Amino acid sequence: MSENQLKGWHHLPEVPIRISPFFSWPPNPAEMARWVWNSWFLISEKLIIVAIAFISFIWFQPPLEETRTFAADWIGAMFVRNFLLALAVGGSLHLWFYTFSKQGKALKYDPRPLMVNGRQFTLGGQVRDNMFWTLGSGVVIWTAYEVLLFWALANGHMPMITWAASPVWFVALFFLIPVWESLYFYCIHRAIHIPFLYKHVHYLHHRNINVGPWSGMSQHPVEQMVFLGSVFVHLIIGAHPVHILYHLQYYFLTAMTTHTGYQGLLLKDKNRLNLGTFHHQMHHRYFECNYGSLEIPWDKWMGTFHDGTAEANARMQDRRKRIMGK
To answer: What tens digit of pLDDT does each residue of 76-113 get?
Structure first.
């Protein structure tokens, strides 16, 4: 490790971390195309969740005619579907990376194991605590929001988007939802770092300094409500049922994949699927940087960007000293 590299990490990806080339000058169309391709194809979190959304819609979603009136049968069926989906994704990732340690510490950012015991956790252990908040309240709120939006769509309280009427907009929404997430997440994330909200709400999530798959949605119910509330943008812009499914599955399931603690899924010594970003991993250790994502560089514009270099770390430390000195 050179003197210019960050210390205390097991795995460091290529730094400095790059922001989206769509916000760089001068414009570079080739870099833009490469960014979109690497974000979506050939195998990516986004494309996998699009497939899950269509599978959910075709085989496991009650028809809109049923969702016009609230009923325990279809609401219960959606809850079971979401619970099993969260359990399958979070459980599979945890089994792969931690229980069976299929790739050891290869591509693992933090060298430390997850905490088996810890008084700061509600149920003592980190994994038990994280699963409790994810499955206990997270899935309930996820399902409740789906129920409300499908009811609204079925009763004409929001615009319906169909492939037949608007094929371009129908496809574009899948690409725009992650962009909306970048803006929405930065704004709410900065807000819940206000000392009062951090102490009473966001601290529950930040008990996870060294994160695992179950850490992503291990949040206070108030934070879960605000975080997943991003989906209510569809009351204004409209949606097809599959967009609602994709939107909430994207928010919930990528919170798990981006908190694995690993850069990617290694098969035959090759990273086959990019997962957690070092950008957000640093936020869990340093707290005061990288509040957003890399789709829209809000952190860079607002002076909170840590690009993974020792120079950026020194700037962050200087900023802390200036703030504490006031």
So the answer is: 999 999 999 999 999 999 999 999 999 999 999 999 99
Residues near 35 by beta carbon (within 8 Å), at least 6 away in sequence: 20, 21, 22
b/e sequence 135-148, b meaning 16+ C-beta within 10 Å: bebbbebbbebbbb
Sign of CA dihedral 48, 204, 191, 300: negative
Helices (H), the chain: 29-40, 45-60, 72-94, 126-133, 139-154, 167-191, 195-197, 203-206, 221-228, 234-237, 241-257, 278-286, 298-302, 310-325
Structure tokens at 183: 């803006």
Q: List own/partner pairs for 78-81 with CB under 8 A and 24 or more apart.
A: 78/143, 78/146, 78/147, 79/139, 79/140, 79/143, 81/56
Rounded distance between C-alpha atoms, residue 259 and residue 47, angstroms: 18
Q: Are 187 and 256 in contact (CB under 8 A)?
A: no
Q: What confidence tier does 249 reach under pLDDT thresholds 50, 70, 90? A: very high
Spatial neighbors of 200 by CB under 8 A, at least 6 apart, are: 220
| CB 128, CB 215: distance < 8 Å | no
Mean pLDDT across the chain, nearest whole number?
A: 93
Tokens coding 269: 């010594």
Q: What whole-number distance in Å separates Cα of residue 222 and Cα of residue 227?
A: 9
Confidence of residue 124 (pLDDT cuts 50, 70, 90): confident
Task: Give the 3-state secondary structure of residue 156.
Answer: coil
Confirm if 124 and 38 have CB atoms less than 8 A apart.
no
Determine phi and psi for 272, rounding to 5 degrees. Answer: -90, -20
Burial class (CB in 10 A: 0-12, 13-18, 19+), 190: middle
The neighbouring-strand residues paired with 97 are: none
- Categorize the per-residue pLDDT at 326 as very low, low, confident or very high, splitting at 50, 70 and 90: low
DSSP of 66-111: GGGS--HHHHHHHHHHHHHHHHHHHHHHHIIIIIS-TTTTTTBS--
- Quote the pTM value: 0.94
